[in-house]
């Protein structure tokens, strides 16, 4: 795996020249609009990058965007990978390892998720303070490459507390409704049943989604500080549960995206 990561990073470095990103960004479902705020210097299609997995979802573009955002050099994944697409965890997290090899010092992650906490509402934002991993596999299973990180990485602060506090301050200063909570990662692709939503809330979840945690585990393994934020696109409240479509989820994500973008831009500016 190490050789593959190094080979891919070398290919990308050859394509982007002396551009060295400071911040890595992973954009979730319906949240690709942040790239419109980036002064783009280079774009690479996943399909043209050696060993790079290709997003199979029609609403995920599948591009690496290199440029400047809020005065910082960034690399953004416009289109992420999911376990339910059939990829293994090493493939899903491969881009994070490559971005670290390219020089990033901080990883920012966004996603669309369902609210479990009844005090939250559809369209609100939630800064992730911790997570519960219910996905069936772990990206660190297998032989450990000491060059990438330790065999047993600590996860006592998977999301950097300093960045959480800054983001909440930014949201408050701009009158943006933004909660702090625990994200539960499930495999998908189906949404949850009433009983499952109830279970996820009982075990401490404030929101549920199908991504993010594998990338966060790998980032922590490699010593990368992480910040993650969710757009709450639907409400998983068993007593009032209603059918929801992917189109509705994407629409809510896109409507809430300007607020998320503002928070991320100001957070990046302060790094």
TrEMBL record:
Example of a GO biological process term: nucleoside metabolic process
Entry's EC annotation: 2.4.2.1
Pfam family, one: PNP_UDP_1
InterPro entries the UniProt entry points to: Nucleoside_phosphorylase_d, Nucleoside_phosphorylase_sf, Pur_Nuc_Pase_Ino/Guo-sp, Purine_phosphorylase
Gene3D superfamilies linked: Nucleoside phosphorylase domain
Major enzyme class: transferase
Entries under SUPFAM superfamilies matching the protein: Purine and uridine phosphorylases (SSF53167)
GO MF annotations in UniProt: purine-nucleoside phosphorylase activity
Domain Nucleoside phosphorylase intervals: 23-269
Keyword Protein biosynthesis annotated: no
Keywords associated with the record: Glycosyltransferase, Phosphoprotein, Transferase
GO cellular component: cytoplasm
Pathway involvement of the protein, from the record: Purine metabolism; purine nucleoside salvage
Entries under CDD domains matching the protein: PNP-EcPNPII_like
PANTHER family: METHYLTHIOADENOSINE/PURINE NUCLEOSIDE PHOSPHORYLASE, PURINE NUCLEOSIDE PHOSPHORYLASE-RELATED
Similarity annotation: Belongs to the PNP/MTAP phosphorylase family.
Described function: The purine nucleoside phosphorylases catalyze the phosphorolytic breakdown of the N-glycosidic bond in the beta-(deoxy)ribonucleoside molecules, with the formation of the corresponding free purine bases and pentose-1-phosphate.
Official protein name in the record: Purine nucleoside phosphorylase
